[in-house]
Amino acid sequence: MKKVAFKTLGCRLNQYETDAIASQFQDNDFQLVPFDKEADVYVINSCTVTHQSDHKSRNFINQANRKNPNSILVVTGCMANNAKNELESREEINYVVENDRKSSVFSLVEAHYKGEILHPSKLNTDLFSYGSTEKGFHTRSMVKIQDGCDNFCTFCIIPSVRGRAVSRPIQDILDNVRDVISNGAKEVVLTGVNIGRYEFENYKFDDIVEQILELEGDFRLRISSIEPDGFGDKFLGLLNHPKMTPHLHLCLQSGSDPVLLQMRRMYTIKRFKEIVDRVRSVRSDFNITTDVIIGFPGESDQDFDATCNIIKELQFGHVHAFKYSIRKGTRAERMTEQVDEKIKTKRSELLRGISDQVKKQYRTEFIGKEQIVLVEKTNGKIAKGYGEHYIPVEFSGEELKKNHFYKVKIKSMTAEDEPVLTGEQMI
Amino acid sequence: MRSHKVIEIRNLTPSTYIIRMEKNDFTFKTGQYITLGFSGSIDRREYSIYSSENDEHLEVLIKEVENGLVSKKLKRCKPGDKLDIDGPFGHFSLQNDEINKKKFLFIATGTGISPIHSFIATHPEMDYRLLHGVRKEEEAYERDSYENGNYILCTSREKTGDFHGRVTEYLKQNPVSSDTVCYLCGNCHMIYEAYDILEKQGVQLGPIHTEVYF
């Protein structure tokens, strides 16, 4: 049996796409092995959102080549679009597959073993032709509803590497969700690059959410990352549906209006706060997580302080902060007031301290309360998984099973940087 | 990416010009922008569309940037040259249900007037006022396109405009009624300041009604 190993960098959409490709390999008698083990095929699903992502992708290419220089090494994902020439010139990489052809990675490898050398440019370019993810890496079943982005934020390379916004036909999405539920999925996660801008015929994002929530079955729905400008009152009205999980990853990027304008974000801090207030009026403990860019060109100490203050004020459940890095071809590349790297590092440390503290405060509130946990790992007596708020929970119980929901009484919280709620199964 | 033939260059000031191109089958929503560059070149820049949705040609208004790469090259292009267009992009658009019902205030600085020109050229029947902030009168790009009395030129460096000072100063002195629909396009500082002033005057600004020019 041939062995295949995957490494995924970056966003949830990449995770979904890796899951789908991995399932296809498993369905065709490949054994999935960890990336640090020797494999016949290595697939690196890369990211290029920052310099650091490029650096990591290059390291994993080297690592795969060191483990087995005779393996088939496939690099796909956003770096494959953004640095195609560089990657194609590296002899150790067999195939560089751009995003729009990613769903055909298995066909490429299969053809390779049959002695047919396919050029990736000949592969199918359907953005939504991924199969099921039931055998992938995650208990949660991700469903892709959209790809690409038309927002053209000044810092962002994604529209260049993922292309223009494209929405998947609504019927395909509903069929996909029904399919994963009938295969046992208990949690469906909607993914895409900018899912709030979903638009197919007359259907918008809130229509697709409403229709999924109306489907029968024992499952819950999670919205992944969403932009604050892409949804309206109807969506907010759906947040108290029993199948909807109380968690949104709402991208802030900066707490300063002048910086948001320079980023070409389409909301103000006031509007962002209004959205958070509306969401928390549905459920006061709603988990709102976010992304923040540190050191965007022109970010002053005052702008940075505004970001720190809004993190404290809005009590984000988690802040994914990263230092701004120039992406070639973006508008911000040509901005003159680039922030010194040392200042960015100092601000990063400060912000991390604040967000860790806020995260702990937020999670502490769950002690003494109940969570419905979907188990991802268990030995039968101890289980790990995520509650409905998307907070990690570890609990004890009897005859615990993977991919089952359990009601858990939260007793305490671990003291790590990424605190885990701990508790006991409620009978 | 589509290739469009240049029809003419219209110089408005020593540094500002309009490129008129063949429209071919290109369609857009007024207020949107395109990226533009010479065919085959990787250097591209974003420009809001200046012409109307209904015009038979496509126009962009460009300010030559000192030490700029693309705006300088584009200024030298000639009729018959081919330019590559990508787009249209952006969400800076009028709401269809408001166009004939509401009164509008458009505030622009410099070449930020480009999408506003497109709005008005596409919907000339709109009830609007346009505040245009520039340094000198010569930057009142094609002011004859706007109906008399609807265009208010604010000049900050000379007293030749309808108002001497910045658009934000004009706004403070001439409050806007709260039922006005406002669209802001231009430099970041103007938008930030004007947004604040309008909000204090009771205007509800939709988050998509701003477009930053750099």
Automatic annotation (TrEMBL), chain A:
Domain (MTTase N-terminal) ranges: 2-114
PROSITE patterns reported for this sequence: MTTASE_N, MTTASE_RADICAL, RADICAL_SAM
Taxonomic lineage: Bacteria, Pseudomonadati, Bacteroidota, Bacteroidia, Marinilabiliales
NCBIfam families: MiaB-like-C (TIGR01579), MiaB/RimO family radical SAM methylthiotransferase (TIGR00089)
Residue ranges annotated for the Radical SAM core domain, each copy included: 135-363
Gene: mtaB
Cofactor requirements of the protein: [4Fe-4S] cluster
Matches recorded under InterPro entries: Elp3/MiaA/NifB-like_rSAM, Methylthiotransferase, Methylthiotransferase_CS, Methylthiotransferase_N, Methylthiotransferase_N_sf, MiaB-like_bact, rSAM, rSAM_horseshoe
Key words, A-Z: 4Fe-4S, Iron, Iron-sulfur, Metal-binding, S-adenosyl-L-methionine, Transferase
Designated name of the protein: tRNA (N(6)-L-threonylcarbamoyladenosine(37)-C(2))-methylthiotransferase MtaB
From TrEMBL, chain B:
Name of the featured protein: Oxidoreductase
Record InterPro entries: Cbr1-like_FAD-bd_dom (IPR008333), Cyt_c3_hydrogenase_gsu (IPR012165), FAD-bd_FR_type (IPR017927), FNR_nucleotide-bd (IPR039261), MRET (IPR050415), OxRdtase_FAD/NAD-bd (IPR001433), Riboflavin_synthase-like_b-brl (IPR017938)
Lineage, highest ranks first: Bacteria, Pseudomonadati, Bacteroidota, Bacteroidia, Marinilabiliales
Domain FAD-binding FR-type positions: 1-95
Domain of life from the UniProt record: Bacteria
